[in-house]
Design goal:
Length: 646
């Protein structure tokens, strides 16, 4: 009896943490069918708001191309749409086979009004059962670790199933809008919790990204105080869910899913929570749906700090491990590291199989000084001019388009624009001095240094043969004891003052391309600059019909930011940090005085964070304003999180 009582108490806690009102059961059932009944070679034509209404199941031929599948989907959708129009006009006799099938998909007595509305709600959903099963098998490698991290962060352990929705437990997953890894972080959100640049992208590491995902979920809960909202916010953003609660006047998930009509709250956001519940159900009852299923063994590994900047082949050699195997264990390191345009960073936590642990310290200590380096290989950058193409740039610098795309995180070779900065492979033959070239372990030929965890000014000064007072003076440090991870410090007086690592730092890159030597167009710099990447879409309805994982690919910009950047229905906004009246006027294309007039603000009065402000949309619409505001906040926050780790 005691065991039964405890089980009942535990189930009650789960019900409270992950609410499951009866009103959303039909939606959960739909996603259960998607995850268990149909493969990626088939799909449903269905109603996008009433998921119990499934009109057709489409089967694709084995050798069908993407374009062939798209034509098949469009033809089926047109058939259903035409049938709905006829039924909405009142037709109930002499029905065609497709018309009868469409009518039978709805409850008896469905109204013409509902059928007319349904004309605009016909949608295709690709099956996922083969991907789901493969993901479940793959999940064994990390499941124990994920559950442990969730417990440590105070997140319900049922969230172990969330990667089914995001990526089918695929750490290499990359969406067409730039979300990466098993947990599908966008760059803007991921920067709050992880290092993301052209050398290390921790989104691709299943262990590091798991910690980040748990922290994001817990942060969402701390703000929203409701796990159904916190989970939905993983896709739609904290601010979006705060707005949903404000607009609907409730935190009840079924009401919000039914009534909230925010512009960015499309199909993906509306279905994220119910799809997760379905994925969790299947995950907990895998044999009921797939029969006996054996998962992969949990990975056995250890971590060791890389003491210096080192080539990946040097570490592979010293540990007597295949280069590709070393790469598989350390997916956070980017292509630039593996093709040796960059070193493995100093202090990087290298992951290796447990079989190497006993001698790891001895082996890494045996790495000769000639293969250890004091600094990272410098970057070479190029600013794109009007009319340039990626192929033309690749030809000019005698590099491959593939290497340019990999180094700059580009998913489409045609998606570059004037003014964008590209990192170029290689280092123009310049390699920092190895430790073997330095006397008594003191490194004297390095001009700048990036602060790492555990550093102090005293330690840095000792290592580089200078003194703390010189470093303090060169870097205008108010307090010699206050430095931060990622900060760039000048070590000599004959170098320019380092700039914040932003794409806009024009002094470090070429502004114009001239005919002649390549070096006239590419500048070598010692700072670590993160390449600009395309922003993620926040509009789920724009996804292509054959998007494999529609729910995972539209994580809101800055999903972890609780600030509300949306324009309310009355044309007002909530003032946020780092914003001024001048910003608003600039984004609106009007004079600042106009905003003062409509808000009754005297000259020189500043806006106050948290207050609401009326806006004038006579020059642009609210969507353009929101886009400009979000871009500003994203760029500002990315610069901050590149310098600080929260």
């Amino acid at each position: 009896m005691l065991v039964l009582a405890f089980f009942g108490f535990s189930a009650s806690l789960i019900a409270q943490e992950l609410p499951r009102p009866q009103e959303i059961e039909r939606d959960i059932n739909f996603w259960t069918r998607v995850y268990t009944e149909i493969t990626t070679s088939s799909g449903f034509i269905h109603d996008s708001r009433n998921l119990s209404v499934v009109y057709l199941t489409i089967e694709f031929s084995q050798n069908s191309t993407r374009s062939m599948r798209t034509r098949q989907i469009n033809a089926a959708r047109d058939e259903v749409t035409d049938a709905l129009r006829a039924l909405a006009d009142g037709k109930r006799s002499n029905l065609t086979v497709i018309e009868q099938g469409v009518l039978d998909s709805w409850p008896d007595g469905v109204s013409n009004v509902d059928l007319s509305r349904a004309v605009e709600q016909v949608r295709f959903q690709l099956g996922q059962s083969d991907r789901y099963r493969a993901g479940y098998v793959r999940s064994g490698r990390w499941r124990g670790y994920i559950q442990e991290v969730l417990r440590e962060q105070g997140v319900p352990e049922e969230l172990v199933a969330l990667p089914h929705v995001e990526s089918s437990f695929d750490p290499t997953a990359y969406s067409r809008v730039g979300a990466a890894g098993m947990w599908q972080f966008t760059r803007s959100t991921g920067l709050r919790y992880m290092r993301i640049d052209h050398i290390v992208d921790e989104r691709r590491d299943p262990y590091l990204s798991t910690v980040a995902a748990a922290r994001l979920l817990k942060d969402n809960y701390d703000v929203l105080q409701n796990w159904s909202l916190a989970i939905t916010a993983y896709n739609h953003g904290q601010a979006g869910m705060r707005n949903a609660v404000r607009q609907t006047g409730t935190d009840q998930i079924d009401v919000i899913l039914r009534e909230y009509d925010g512009r960015a709250f499309g199909f993906a956001s509306r279905n994220f929570y119910v799809a997760f519940l379905a994925a969790s159900d299947v995950d907990s009852n895998i044999e009921q749906f797939f029969g006996p299923t054996v998962v992969e063994d949990q990975e056995s590994y250890f971590l060791i700090d890389v003491p210096d900047f080192v080539l990946s082949t040097s570490l592979a050699s010293v540990f007597d491990i295949d280069h590709q195997e070393l790469r598989a264990w350390n997916p956070a390191l980017t292509e630039a590291v593996w093709n040796e345009d960059k070193f493995i960073p100093q202090y990087f936590e290298l992951r290796l199989p447990s079989s190497l642990e006993e001698r790891a310290g001895e082996l890494i200590a045996s790495l000769p000084g000639s293969q250890r380096y004091a600094a990272q290989k410098p970057d070479i950058m190029h600013r794109i001019r009007r009319g340039e193409t990626l192929s033309g740039i690749a030809d000019r610098y005698q590099v491959s388009q593939a290497s340019l795309m990999a180094l700059n995180n580009l998913r489409n070779r045609n998606f570059i624009r004037e003014g964008q900065v590209l990192l170029l492979p290689g280092n123009d033959g310049i390699t920092p001095a190895s430790l073997a070239d330095s006397s008594a372990g003191v490194i004297r030929d390095v001009s700048t240094y990036i602060v790492r965890a555990g550093d102090s000014v005293d330690l840095i000064a000792t290592r580089f043969g200078t003194n703390p007072q010189t470093i303090q003076l060169l870097n205008s440090l108010d307090d010699v004891n206050r430095i931060y991870v990622g900060q760039e410090l000048r070590l000599r007086s004959d170098v320019e003052t380092p700039q914040l690592a932003q794409i806009e730092t024009a002094s470090q890159i070429t502004n114009e391309l001239e005919e002649g030597d390549i070096n006239d167009s590419a500048q070598i710099v010692s700072t670590v600059v993160s390449p600009e990447t395309s922003g993620s879409s926040i509009t789920g309805e724009l996804l292509e019909p054959l998007e494999t994982n529609v729910l995972s690919s539209v994580q809101a910009e800055m999903a972890a930011d609780p600030s509300d950047y949306l324009v309310a229905s009355d044309g007002t906004i909530e003032v946020q940090a780092l914003e001024t009246l001048g910003h608003y006027a600039d984004w609106l294309g009007i004079r600042t005085q106009r905003l003062r007039d409509i808000n009754g603000m005297p000259f020189r009065q500043a806006v106050v964070i948290g207050n609401r402000l009326k806006l004038d949309f006579s020059q642009i619409n609210s969507s353009i304003f929101e886009e400009r505001r979000l871009t500003y906040q994203r760029q500002t926050q990315e610069a901050f999180f590149l310098a600080y780790q929260v």
